[in-house]
Amino acid sequence: MNELDTLRAAQPDVDAPSKQALDAALAQILTDGPAARPRARRAALPRPSLRMVLAGGLAAAAAVAVVPVLDGNGAAPAEAAVVLHRAAAATRAEADTTARPGQWIYMESTVRGVPGQGVMWAPGEDADSPRPSTTFHIRSWHPATGGTFRSCKPVGDHRGWCRADPARVVRQVNGREETVAQLPGRDGWDAGNEDFVRSLPTDPALLRARIYAQADQKSFLKDFDRDQTAVQTIADLMQGHLPRALRAALYDVLARVPGVRLDADAVDNAGRHGIGFTRTGQGERLQIIVARGNYRYLGDRLTAVTDLPGGVKAGAVLRWSAQLRVAVVDKPRQRPA
Q: For residue 168, which of 4, 117, 182, 205 sits 20 to 30 Å off, Cα-Cα?
């Protein structure tokens, strides 16, 4: 479905703007950010449940078109879906890089957050790090194949005991080097394993089914939100080295998640401005940030919207990251040119 079809399905009795007007409005939002857009007046909204498409961008290009948010119909709000489908199309046109056996994945990023909440590990030797006010600059090298399980002997209906062969990851945190073990996922979902990532389907419908099946593995958790968990799964995948077809399909899947909203100006942990795709659930607000124009993944921001266990207060930044570089290299400690 293209952008005009999305708008027509949302509000069939209102004339949709022309494709030229839509392109111009999107270009203005994604290039100039919110500062360039006129402030929308409340009088423009006939009732609270309606939202003006693209928040004033179309008003400058065409007659005002009002559409309802599509949260309840199995899709993101119309403006988010339009931009996400454009991001998918742009990503499919990019060049692709494949890691060969024996090569390594280089990742460079910055992150800060709350241990045990947004950040699941403590860089360096300080078990109380990172603090929400401390940013860590991380370089890591991990083998493209990741960790594996072997010698699995079935016992009844179960897989039985397996011997884990962890991947040895070289990581530098603020210049201090450490070697850590990356264990494979027992449930078969291993976002850090290049072989696993390339086994995922790139058809959006099939990929959506896989992502939601993975999300359902956490259905036992209190206040489980299936759609929010799916967005978390997408965000985790985007942090890695992905084939362009898979990253494009992730954008298409995200466009179908109810409650995902467009933020025309989002900032990653490195201070770069881009576009945000945001969803709130399970007491948290998760924002996936991509670059304007080429839609390259920049990072994410996870914020508590309610008080959480461990004394974490609403408004605390649980994780704020920036992906600076992902590349394929021939050996650990080698940096891409």
A: 117
